[in-house]
Amino acid sequence: MVISAIIALIIGLLFIALRNVAMGISGAMGVGLIAQILGANFIGFAVLNFFSRNLADGDGLRAVLLANFTSDVLGLIITIAYWLTSGLTVYGYIVAAIYLIYSIAFGYYLIAQPRKLMEPAAATIPCPQEPC
Prior knowledge:
Oligomer: single chain
Number of domains: 2
Order of helices and strands: HHHHHH
Number of strands: 0
């Protein structure tokens, strides 16, 4: 998991920081392939969020919320930066709005609800008699 996180972080930072190089690579790979890879990442977040929706562990829930918040804030910053330099179409405004809404929602749960995230999971009470 740590190796995967390090590699993903390096690739993500390279794609963000070296946008022109990344566009050259993606042009060689094809825009369709890059769109499909991005779609795969969105599906991965969808699966992560769906299966962690009832997570009782405060640390686990905090990690999922932090991953979503980080991804959405970076997406919002990059979209706004592109908007300021190149302009956006209607679809770009929709993407920016989605990133803004998600950033606010995940940020709210991380900042305004810290006690809920740090509460221990509810203990299960063992059955006093068999069969329960």
